[in-house]
């Protein structure tokens, strides 16, 4: 297992990325800083056993949680993203498959090329409610990667083939559990909120501005970040409030500056989210996390 933090050199995570056919790794820990990783020339499939973290894939920032499967094709920029809005914890099994071997599999299994899903485009599958037990499959792949000595990679190749078929089957039967990446509208809305969250903006304001119904707007946020639009705005405001409190700004002034109409509603939201009061936050030296 690998813990990423400011004292851990990036080379420790990169490891040996010379992938002949298949390699399976296990990473867990807390992320304190954005962790950048260059795009590579092989396929990467991540299974989140237990995670509460943001992940940037191309232009998209995604929320990863338990049971999510993240598919990253070759030559796609991606990295973990540190955020005050989440705990930044990750327990992830990573499968690396060489481009050459993956192409062989796709050519051998012509049926996969004719389903309504493609491994050649980035996507995230939400499998937490699935009965297919991916939470067993990925750890098993990791365990067998060293079980059979020199034959481990050969065994792993066969097991990966079965897993890819299982993932493809889930993707075609549960289309509502797939997040399509690069939704330009939701990215634009998030960017606007990030710039104006301290203003008196509401769901209705955003609905009018972007010519989209409130229900559709919330649906976009649920698919993108697994939270509602209102929850995203509140998380941004509360995260900023922590910074202002520790900068010595009076509590009532903080509430007003981050967009709350009155101190009582700010206090309740702060206490419900962080389980401590603003005064306790000021007294603490450690990071406050929801």
From TrEMBL:
Top-rank taxon, per record: Bacteria
Xref: SUPFAM superfamilies: Homeodomain-like, Regulatory protein AraC
Keywords noted in UniProt: DNA-binding, Transcription, Transcription regulation
Residue intervals of the HTH araC/xylS-type domain: 187-284
An MF annotation (GO) of this entry: DNA-binding transcription factor activity
UniProt keyword annotation of rRNA-binding present: no
UniProt keyword Transcription, yes or no: yes
InterPro entries associated with the record: AraC-bd (IPR003313), Homeodomain-like_sf (IPR009057), HTH-like (IPR037923), HTH_AraC (IPR018060), HTH_AraC-typ_CS (IPR018062), RmlC-like_jellyroll (IPR014710)
Protein name listed in UniProt: AraC family transcriptional regulator
Organism (species): Dorea formicigenerans
């Amino acid at each position: 297992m690998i813990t990423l933090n400011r004292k851990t050199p990036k080379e420790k995570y990169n490891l040996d990325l010379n992938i002949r056919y298949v390699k399976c790794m296990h990473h867990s820990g807390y992320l304190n800083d954005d962790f950048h990783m260059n795009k590579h020339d092989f396929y990467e499939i991540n299974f989140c056993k237990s995670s509460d973290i943001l992940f940037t894939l191309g232009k998209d920032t995604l929320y990863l949680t338990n049971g999510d499967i993240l598919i990253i094709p070759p030559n796609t920029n991606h990295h973990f993203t540190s955020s005050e809005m989440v705990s930044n914890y990750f327990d992830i099994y990573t499968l690396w498959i060489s481009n050459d071997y993956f192409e062989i599999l796709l050519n051998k299994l012509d049926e996969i090329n004719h389903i309504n899903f493609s491994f050649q485009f980035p996507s995230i599958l939400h499998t937490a409610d699935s009965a297919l037990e991916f939470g067993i499959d990925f750890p098993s792949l990791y365990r067998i990667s060293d079980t059979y000595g020199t034959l481990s990679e050969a065994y792993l190749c066969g097991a990966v083939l079965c897993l890819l078929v299982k993932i493809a089957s889930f993707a075609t039967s549960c289309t509502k559990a797939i997040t399509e990446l690069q939704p330009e509208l939701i990215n634009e809305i998030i960017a606007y909120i990030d710039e104006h969250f301290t203003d008196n903006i509401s769901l209705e304001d955003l609905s009018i501005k972007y010519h989209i119904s409130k229900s559709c707007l919330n649906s976009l946020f649920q698919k993108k970040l697994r939270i509602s639009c209102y929850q995203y705005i509140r998380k941004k405001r509360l995260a900023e409030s922590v910074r202002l409190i520790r900068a010595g700004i009076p509590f009532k002034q903080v509430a007003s500056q981050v967009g709350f109409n009155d101190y009582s509603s700010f206090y309740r939201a702060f206490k419900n989210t962080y389980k401590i009061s603003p005064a306790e936050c000021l007294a603490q030296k450690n990071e406050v996390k929801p």
